[in-house]
Structure formats: structure tokens, C-alpha cells
Specification:
The longest helix has 18 residues. The protein is about 20% helix and about 35% strand. The protein is α+β, with helices and mostly antiparallel strands and about 375 residues long. It contains eight helices and 20 strands. It has an 18-stranded mixed β-sheet that branches. A two-stranded antiparallel ribbon has the order 13-14.
Length: about 375
């Protein structure tokens, strides 16, 4: 009988995502290629992930790999892995902002960072994007507590209010805020024809499309977007064409296999009154731009945090599709708060930027708030 392998792990919820957290040193005995181990831990490929820890949707099939940093100016190194559900694929392209929000908490809980009164700032280096995130975590009297009255859309209850400050987020994967050099590009899509998109890279690369160009209003829920296989195929064609343009894949029709997570397709539209999946009415005057995101070839139930951050960046670049649709584009200043409406509520961001002599946006940081908590610590067998 072959003995099961095992590894210590934790499960944390970060924002609207949930993932398995592992220490890099514990993975060392399994070699440098983690894919097989992560697939087995999560129970992929299987649409139910019945034989692992995955939750059968992309937002709960995530892994964070953490190690302390001893030489550089940051505290911990963090590698994000998106484990596909129905395919034997692990993607390390891009970062997950929601999972990022639990990294600082994990670092404190694991003794990698000492808590200080009243706030502990954990400096996190994301190896996927080679960017630093400052995570400001309330720790009154130098103690971590998960109690708090801050609420985020898509998560029941309340918790501690964690500020995530993404430092110099432009060019996370391409090295440029505008990877193509254009505020708007035209893609030719089979079955649709030409469509205008904006490709922006801040925190993660996104490709923005106006919702009505693909037959949507921008007020749809994730399930309404997902209920048409033809629509999902069309959206992936657009995303694939953008991935090819960015050089992430050689052929657009290979994007779902070779670069399933980035760029993230993002549908945007003008702010209008709508009803969330939780039954809450969101009035048009309470937010600035409607956003519906795709994640791993399905609609995101809420919104990726890095997606919200990149959308904020796109909004301050004159001429991009989000900027054209933004309600208060004439009121933008060097430190602007922007609120976006997604399928289950609202998310607020703050962007700190300046304009160059040529009029280009230079982004210093983009911030938002999340909650996070520890769910489990133990041993996973595989």
C-alpha cells in the first residue's frame, strides 16, 4: 500500500476569495515544480473537486505560497497560484488581490511578522507581478483580532478593516501601463467583426469592453452572463485576441489553456440603478462605473480586487473606454476615490497619481479595503 503524502496548510478567506496557504519551505521536499502537488491538494481536474480542498469555483481554487524575506526591504514573499478546476492547469500569471489581503494576516499568525500597536504594516512582495503591497492591518495592543464592523459586498458578516496599498502597480506583467501604447485598440473577432477594447496593466492586465458591444446591459449577474455558452465563447474569443496581442499566447484560440487567467476580460458600462444577486437595490448615483468581470472563462461572482484597482487606473487615463463611460471623469484629481458597481454590490478604491508633462498618468499607488480571516489550520493528505 502506498502511503499518502502530507503537508501542513491553512485555509484563509481573503476578500471574496478563499484559498490554501502554504509555507514555501514545506513544499521543498516535493521539488521545484509544484503543479502536481497543488492539483492534488485542490482535487483538480474535477468539476466538483470532490477529492481535494477546492470549492468548485475559481474564487475558491486558489493557493498562496509564502516565505520570509531576509535581505530585501519587504517582509514576506508571496506567490499566487490559480488552480484550474476541470483542467490539469496551474497558472502563476498575475496576482489575486483578494487572496493578497490574507497574506499579511497569515504572516502575523505564522510568526513571520511581529504585530505592533495599533496597526501592523506587512510589506508583501508578490513574485507573480514583482510588485510590493503594503497591508495595513489593525492590531490593537499588538494583537490580531478578526472582530470588526467593516463589511464588503459578497461576504456575509463583518470583520477587521484591512487596507491594501499597491505600490507602483503599473506594468505588473507587461512593464507598461498601456501595453500596446494605445488607449483604445481594435480587435477583429470571428462572428462579431471589429470591436474596440482598452488594454491596461496595473496590478493585473485587463482588457476592457463596453458591455453593449456584446449584447449586455452591464447590469447582469454572473449567472445571467454564464447562462449562454455562445456568449461565453464570444467573450473568450475577445480575451484570447487580447492575449495574443500582448504576446501571452501565440494563437488566440489557445488562451484558455495557455493563459487562462490573464488578461482578465472586463465589461464596463455607465452607472445605472440595478439589483444585486442579494436583492439589494444599488442606485445609479451611489457609484461611478458598472463593472462585470470574467474569471477563468466564467463570470466573477463579485469582482477581483486587482480588477477593481486596474479599472481605477484605466479611469484616470483620458480616452480609455472606462474613462469615456465614467460618471465623474471631469472631477478627477491627483487623489481620487472611485466606486464601482459589481454583481453583488460596490467596491471603493483610492488612486494616487500625477500627470507627466506629456499628459500621461503616473500612478503612485492604488488602495482598497478588504476583510480576511483564518478558517482552518492543519494537515492535508494527498
Amino acid at each position: 500500500m502506498i502511503a499518502l503524502k502530507k503537508i501542513d496548510c491553512s485555509i484563509y478567506r481573503g476578500g471574496t476569495s478563499k484559498g490554501v496557504f502554504l509555507l514555501k519551505k514545506d513544499l521543498a521536499e516535493f521539488g521545484e515544480n509544484y503543479d502536481e502537488v497543488l492539483l492534488k491538494i485542490m482535487g483538480s481536474p474535477d468539476v466538483r473537486q470532490i477529492d481535494g480542498l477546492g470549492g468548485a469555483v475559481s474564487t475558491t481554487s486558489k493557493v498562496a505560497i509564502i516565505s520570509p524575506e531576509e535581505k530585501e526591504a519587504w517582509d514576506v514573499n508571496y506567490t499566487f497560484a490559480q488552480v484550474a478546476i476541470d483542467k490539469p492547469i496551474v497558472s502563476y500569471a498575475g496576482n489575486c488581490g483578494n487572496i493578497s489581503s490574507a497574506v499579511g494576516v497569515f504572516a502575523i499568525e505564522s510568526g513571520l511578522v511581529k504585530a505592533t500597536d495599533p496597526i501592523t504594516t506587512v510589506k508583501v512582495y508578490n513574485t507573480n507581478t514583482k510588485k510590493v503591497i503594503y497591508e495595513h492591518i489593525p492590531t490593537p495592543d499588538g494583537k490580531l483580532s478578526y472582530e470588526g464592523d467593516f463589511k464588503i459586498s459578497g461576504v456575509p458578516g463583518s470583520g477587521l478593516k484591512i487596507e491594501l496599498e499597491f505600490i507602483d502597480p503599473a506594468g505588473s506583467m507587461t512593464g507598461k501601463l498601456l501595453p500596446t501604447g494605445n488607449v483604445v485598440d481594435t480587435l477583429t473577432i470571428e462572428g462579431l467583426g471589429e470591436i474596440e477594447v482598452s488594454i491596461v496593466d496595473a496590478a493585473n492586465p485587463l482588457v476592457f469592453v463596453e458591455a453593449d458591444r456584446v449584447g449586455l446591459t452591464g447590469k447582469e449577474s454572473a449567472s445571467e452572463i454564464d447562462n449562454s455558452d455562445d456568449r461565453l465563447a464570444l467573450l473568450e474569443k475577445i480575451r484570447g485576441a487580447a492575449a495574443e496581442k500582448l504576446g501571452f499566447v501565440k494563437a488566440a484560440d489557445q488562451s484558455a489553456k495557455e493563459s487562462p487567467g490573464v488578461p482578465k476580460l472586463t465589461l464596463v458600462s455607465k452607472a445605472e440603478t440595478y439589483t444585486t444577486v442579494s436583492g439589494e437595490t444599488i442606485s445609479s448615483d451611489s457609484y461611478d462605473l458598472a463593472v462585470r468581470m470574467m474569471s477563468m472563462q466564467r463570470a466573477h461572482k463579485t469582482i477581483a480586487l486587482t480588477g477593481a484597482l486596474c479599472t481605477a487606473a484605466a479611469c484616470v487615463i483620458p480616452g480609455t473606454i472606462p474613462n469615456q463611460l465614467l460618471k465623474k471623469k471631469n472631477q478627477l484629481n491627483h487623489q481620487t476615490k472611485l466606486c464601482f458597481g459589481h454583481g453583488d454590490g460596490l467596491i471603493e478604491t483610492t488612486i494616487d497619481y500625477e500627470k507627466s508633462k506629456e499628459g500621461d498618468a503616473i500612478i503612485r499607488s492604488i488602495s482598497s479595503y478588504r476583510t480576511a480571516r483564518k478558517i482552518l489550520t492543519g494537515t492535508v493528505f494527498f
